[in-house]
């Protein structure tokens, strides 16, 4: 099982049987409020009829179309609809099947772009400590999670460096929204890497605008703006990994829109199809796309692609999902709920074990003091007890994360954080 303590799970399985709107039903019949949108992906809620209908119609109509040298109309419609939600200028779209594939695709596009401009020596990639970019060799190389890298350390991509992460509990604990401290100093670490390696060797910088998987790390004020300024100054491409922040999580179509900072490439997955069918995409600045296409001799311009790129079922799910976001105004709804969500999250201040609460849009992180000698055990116990008491949360190390579907009601927000408060009182 992926990222699972297999022996523990098999001794005490937690099985889900069905899902509808805000709830899962477990195999033992108890209902579980989805406080995490599955794995940050079911942004429109579960079992949405327009998506179910679109997928089943498509399966009967065109089950599959090869994606090499052939296409199907829905893939171009889906690409245009995705592009409409991206910041101005990022209107070329390459479909993948997952966040990991989107990341590896974006890194390859960055390398192909510099090669097309006659700067093929720009091959260095810069990620960030505590970054999560999926599990491909590209993604774990630029990613900054030690256990994901350790076993594969001998074969990680060469020529990768990392920025420091931006988490500073001593200065920024209990921040509501973006932390006040650290924007410029954390981003200026990129100047040091440029001085060390020389800009002429660096292809791209990849960061999550808000890091989700490693414990909800909200970017300090001014940080992303500064990264943008430095990358632009040196001709380095900036990639935002928006696999989590894309499609409404922060109360805007993208994190880029929310923060008002436009990168050169955006990686997408998860909420793009409401997770009903695996899907992902990379949105690319048109000038980057055109450079690659125009510099190539006749024939294939970009040697990359998946058997299931723009799979008809995926493009059907993407189009139906984006239709729901639009028709129900779900990104605005997330924005409108953010203040109540922030209040409810910060009400955990003062509860047992809680050393920080942080939040942005419909994401909150609750950091606990680790149990001596057993890091992660405390949050794992809280996760299990919440599940038994009918609320799904997530944990990474000793950080609990909450990120409900954008259809969540205020009473359900209350239920999530009240359950957490009750559970934390009983956790050793
Ligand atoms: C920012 C980010 N990038 C990439 C991924 C990998 O996505 P997938 O699991 O679909 O490969 C994730 C998954 O959580 C993610 O949060």
UniProtKB/TrEMBL annotation:
One Pfam family from the record: Aminotran_3
The protein's required cofactors: pyridoxal 5'-phosphate
Highest taxon above the source species: Bacteria
Keywords: Aminotransferase, Pyridoxal phosphate, Transferase
Family indicated by similarity: Belongs to the class-III pyridoxal-phosphate-dependent aminotransferase family.
PANTHER family: AMINOTRANSFERASE (PTHR43094), AMINOTRANSFERASE CLASS-III (PTHR43094:SF1)
Name listed for the protein in its UniProt record: Aspartate aminotransferase family protein
Native source species: Castellaniella denitrificans
């Amino acid at each position: 099982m992926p990222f699972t303590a297999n022996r523990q799970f098999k001794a005490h399985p937690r099985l889900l049987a069905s899902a509808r709107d805000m709830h899962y039903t477990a195999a033992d019949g108890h209902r579980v409020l989805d406080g995490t949108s599955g794995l940050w992906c079911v942004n429109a809620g579960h079992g949405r009829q327009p998506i179910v209908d679109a997928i089943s119609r498509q399966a009967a109509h065109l089950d599959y179309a090869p994606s090499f040298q052939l296409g199907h109309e829905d893939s171009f419609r889906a690409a245009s609809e995705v592009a409409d939600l991206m910041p101005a200028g990022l209107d070329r779209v390459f479909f993948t099947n997952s966040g990991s594939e989107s990341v590896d695709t974006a890194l390859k596009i960055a390398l192909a772009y510099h090669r097309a401009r006659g700067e093929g020596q720009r091959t260095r990639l810069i990620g960030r400590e505590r970054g999560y970019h999926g599990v491909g060799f590209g993604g774990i190389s630029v990613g900054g999670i030690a256990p994901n890298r350790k076993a594969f350390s001998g074969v990680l991509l060469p020529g990768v460096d990392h920025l420091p992460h931006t988490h500073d509990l001593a200065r920024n604990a209990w921040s509501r929204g973006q932390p006040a401290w650290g924007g410029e100093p954390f981003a200026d670490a990129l100047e040091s890497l440029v001085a060390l390696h020389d800009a002429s060797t660096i292809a791209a910088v990849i960061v999550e605008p808000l890091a989700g998987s490693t414990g909800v790390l909200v970017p300090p004020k001014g940080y992303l703006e500064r990264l943008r300024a430095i990358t632009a100054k040196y001709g380095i491409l900036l990639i935002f990994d928006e696999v989590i922040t894309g499609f409404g999580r922060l109360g805007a179509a993208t994190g880029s829109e929310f923060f008002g900072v436009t990168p050169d490439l955006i990686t997408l997955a998860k909420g793009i199809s409401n997770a009903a069918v695996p899907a992902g995409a990379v949105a690319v600045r048109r000038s980057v796309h055109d450079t690659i296409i125009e510099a190539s001799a006749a024939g294939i311009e970009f040697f990359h692609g998946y058997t299931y790129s723009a799979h008809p079922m995926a493009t059907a799910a993407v189009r139906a999902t984006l239709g729901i976001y639009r028709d129900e105004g779900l990104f605005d709804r997330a924005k409108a709920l953010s203040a109540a969500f922030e209040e409810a999250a910060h009400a955990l201040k003062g509860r047992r074990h809680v050393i920080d609460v942080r939040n942005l849009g419909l994401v909150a992180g609750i950091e606990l003091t680790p149990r001596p000698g057993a890091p992660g055990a405390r949050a794992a116990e809280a996760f299990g007890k919440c599940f038994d008491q009918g609320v799904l949360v997530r944990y990474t190390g000793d950080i609990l994360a909450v990120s409900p579907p954008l259809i969540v009601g205020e009473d359900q927000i209350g239920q999530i954080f009240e359950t957490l408060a009750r559970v934390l009182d009983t956790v050793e």
